[in-house]
Design a protein that fits this description.
alpha+beta; Ribosomal Protein S5, domain 2; eight-stranded mixed sheet; binds ligand DP6
Length: 355
């Protein structure tokens, strides 16, 4: 019996929003209510392989070596359905995906995950799509994933399906140092957390207005490579977003004690002239923006901070890309295993292991 198989493989980096979005547009389609601007993080990556196979009766998805069911499986299948519709076929797929960092802990695993999935699935489906088109597919599954298609600094517009590269990775010699405070799953996912905030936070309309002007300040600061401007605007964006979460009823409170201690410490250091600024997503981990020249000093103080379990140094990263179709990985007959090389954080990026 002849079988039909179509294979694609891709890799994408996580990204961190320097100007945050929180809340979806009333127009639907997973569009965001406010614009956002991100930096791709080279050390935090997802690799995904998609094999459309006519012998499969349903999609089979494995993440980090575990087969997934329920909502995570549904999200992947819905994503594949959109690409299958575009490609005009109905084959089910075996999807194998791996992160080199902890999932669901505010390290943007859905961003790199859906960017890698869109890229691998499009390759497997034989679709030739632009980055903007892939971004549009990715953002329908997870809005922040729409930014992980692009290298360096990227923009996701509000209320429309537009996204764009703002500047390549070489534009600005900065680093984002991640202080991991907890690597466990978060108490409430981003999607539910932002729906709840939109419904119950009395300040949500004010956030929608101010987020746009903060976005413009971050954008201008990045374009001009103005550390002080980006530092102030990025931190403001972070506090504004967390303020809407905290003032929801009941509160959506992701920050932990060490997170807040680090905010104080970073304010203190910047007042003394150090180029350090914080940002936090839907989790307690603190990402510290700094200059390349100040990475070692930043790592040193983060490693000494009580409650910081691990420090990961990220430089501006590449956009999502397909991985070579040549070689044993794609041609291997084993279908139950991730057919990719061992995948872990680069040792140069991991600086601290104590607690
Ligand atoms: C706090 O894009 O992960 O990181 O589209 O519902 O999957 P879904 O949400 P997601 O939310 C991320 C929000 C944020 C801020 C940001 O990245 O702009």
């Amino acid at each position: 019996m002849t079988t039909s198989k179509r294979i694609g493989r891709a890799e994408a980096c996580a990204n961190i929003a320097l100007a945050k979005y929180w809340g979806k547009s009333d127009r639907g389609d997973n569009l965001t209510a406010v614009p956002s601007l991100s930096l791709s993080l080279d050390a935090l990556r997802t690799r995904t392989e998609v094999v459309f196979d006519d012998r499969l009766e349903h999609d089979v998805v494995s993440m980090g070596g575990q087969e997934v069911t329920g909502r995570p499986l549904e999200r992947v299948s819905t994503h594949l359905d959109r690409l299958r519709e575009r490609a005009g076929f109905k084959l089910h797929a075996r999807v194998t995906s791996e992160n080199n960092f902890p999932t669901a802990a505010g390290l943007a695993s859905s961003a790199s995950g859906f960017a890698a999935l869109a890229t691998a699935a499009a390759q497997a489906a034989g679709l030739t799509l632009t980055q903007a088109e892939l971004s549009s597919f990715a953002r329908k599954s997870s809005a922040s994933a729409g930014r992980s298609l692009f290298e360096g600094f990227a923009i996701l517009d509000a209320e429309t399906d537009q996204s764009q590269a703002l500047a390549p990775r070489g534009h600005w010699d900065v680093a984002m140092v991640v202080a991991v405070i907890t690597s466990g799953p978060k108490p409430i996912g981003s999607t539910g957390g932002m729906e709840h905030t939109k419904r119950t936070c009395p300040y949500y309309p004010a956030w929608q207005q101010v987020a746009r002007s903060v976005f413009e300040q971050v954008k201008e600061g990045v374009e001009r490579r103005d550390f002080a401007q980006v530092a102030d605007a990025m931190e403001h964006s972070t506090r504004l977003m967390h303020a809407t979460m905290i003032s929801s009823l009941p509160p959506v409170l992701y920050l932990k004690g060490p997170t807040v201690e680090l905010m104080h410490e970073i304010h203190r250091r910047r007042a003394l002239g150090e180029p350090v600024a914080y940002t936090m997503d839907a989790g307690p981990n603190v990402k510290v923006l700094t200059t390349s020249a100040h990475v070692d000093a930043t790592v040193a103080f983060l490693e000494e901070t009580p409650g910081v379990q691990r420090v990961i140094v990220c430089r501006p990263g590449p956009g999502a890309s397909t991985l070579s179709a040549a070689g044993p990985l794609l041609e291997a007959e084993r279908e139950d295993k991730l057919q990719m090389p061992a995948f872990s954080l680069p040792s140069s990026a991991v600086r601290g292991t104590g607690s």
